[in-house]
Write a structure and sequence with these properties.
By secondary structure, this protein is α/β, with parallel strands linked by helices. It has helices spanning 25-32, 43-48, 50-60, 77-90, 101-116, 188-207, 213-235, 240-259, 264-276, 280-295, 300-309, 317-334, 350-358, 372-383, and strands spanning 14-17, 36-40, 64-68, 94-99, 136-140, 152-157, 162-167, 175-178. The protein is globular and about 60 Å long.
């Protein structure tokens, strides 16, 4: 780490963390003097009863709200369009996203398009988002994306089957109510995939070219928490301490990659998710060890430090780096995540997938340069 390098660190989101933190929503609303609240969520949150817990609290305080519940996994551009129409029709002056990364990312995009117009794809790339967005409050119900504290929103272009990002600190939630009890309903498979998503965020943030000291600190503590608590959260979903450790780890990983970046793992995972609508966390988990091996010669010292965060010891840097990769592979196996073959990737799609991974905006921050041909080799290796 070069301590003479310049960096900036901005955290526009107020984080309220703790058991029962979600219950403070009405107080936040009243303090901000919001009048018309649009709850943005998905079918899974509806079925779990978590949205009713939120809406009942609003009713108890006589607050006016409506709901948009048509967010799909890997939210699509047409989800944003439909949510924007609902927000305008209701004259919403605040969005409350209740769910995992999909509802929160979708809400961020709705917040932009409702006030600034146009199509969400028009906001891809730097400097495209103006200052006028709907205020957003986020209540995460998964421990994975960290979207409740990030500056980005990932949306799928449904016609091109390509994931793109809109990024700006202005779209970060104004408040995040981070309540471990809101994650207790997650089934084991979702706990596992979102947990590996959070681990990927932390590892890539720590090793990306854009890494900086404060993001490094958050990333390393996130890795420590996730390594310590993921297996328990998967095998014993009622373990509130494990749920808390995972949720805090996810938040810290989100802070880390917002101030650094993700890298090749996400480039590959987003290409797969855009093409096959595959679960983002699963895509990350199956790709992470292979990318770590590819990057090994460029970030051995960082990998060895990751090994320490995961509770491992080593005799030299090379051994430490190898043990970090092996530990990540073992963790994915321990929580029984599927392998690459389960994604249904077709050989005829590999060229397209490689091209989409290469043009992802985070490719430039992978510690080892990756060309389109490098991505194609990686996809072939994974498919082999």
């Amino acid at each position: 780490m070069n301590l003479l390098n310049s960096f900036s660190f901005e955290l526009p989101t107020t984080i309220e963390y703790g058991i029962g933190a979600a219950k403070s929503l009405a107080d936040v609303i009243k303090n901000e003097n919001f009048r018309n609240l649009l709850l943005v969520t998905d079918e899974g949150v509806l079925r779990s009863g978590l949205l009713k817990r939120v809406s009942d609290a609003l009713d108890a305080h006589g607050l006016k709200w409506d709901v948009f519940d048509r967010v799909e996994p890997n939210p699509k551009d047409y989800n944003v369009e439909a949510g924007t129409e609902t927000a305008k029709r209701f004259s919403a002056d605040c969005l409350v996203a209740v769910g995992g990364g999909s509802p929160i990312d979708c809400a961020k995009a709705i917040a932009v398009v409702t006030r600034q117009g146009g199509a969400v794809r028009e906001y891809e790339g730097p400097g495209k988002i103006g200052p006028d967005v709907l205020p957003l409050i986020a209540i995460p119900t998964t421990a994975g994306t960290g979207s409740e504290v990030t500056f980005s929103s990932v949306i799928t272009d449904s016609s091109e089957k390509f994931k793109f990002s809109i990024k700006d600190p202005i779209i970060a939630p104004r408040v995040a109510l981070v309540d471990p009890e809101m994650t207790l309903t997650m089934p084991p498979e979702l706990t596992a995939s979102t947990g590996m998503d959070a681990l990927t965020h932390a590892i890539e943030a720590f090793t990306a070219k854009a890494a900086e000291p404060l993001a490094d600190a958050a990333a390393l503590y996130a890795i420590e928490l996730i390594a310590a608590h993921l297996k328990s959260a998967v095998t014993d979903g009622d373990n509130l301490e494990a749920r808390a450790g995972m949720l805090l780890g996810s938040v810290l990983a989100g802070i880390a990659f917002s101030h650094s970046d993700v890298a090749a793992v996400h480039c590959v995972a987003e290409a797969l998710g855009g093409k096959y609508d595959a679960a983002h966390g699963v895509c990350n988990a199956v790709v992470l060890p292979a990318v770590m091996e590819y990057n090994m010669e460029y970030c051995k010292a960082q990998y060895a430090r990751i090994a320490v965060a995961m509770g491992l010891t080593y005799e030299n840097i090379d051994q430490g780096a190898r043990r970090a990769v092996a530990a990540v592979q073992q963790l994915a196996a321990d929580v029984r995540l599927p392998e690459f073959g389960s994604l249904g990737v077709r050989d005829s799609d590999l060229e397209e997938l490689a091209a989409n991974a290469f043009k992802n905006g985070s490719n430039i921050d992978n510690p080892r340069p990756m060309s389109k041909e490098d991505y194609l080799k990686l996809f072939r290796r994974l498919s082999g």
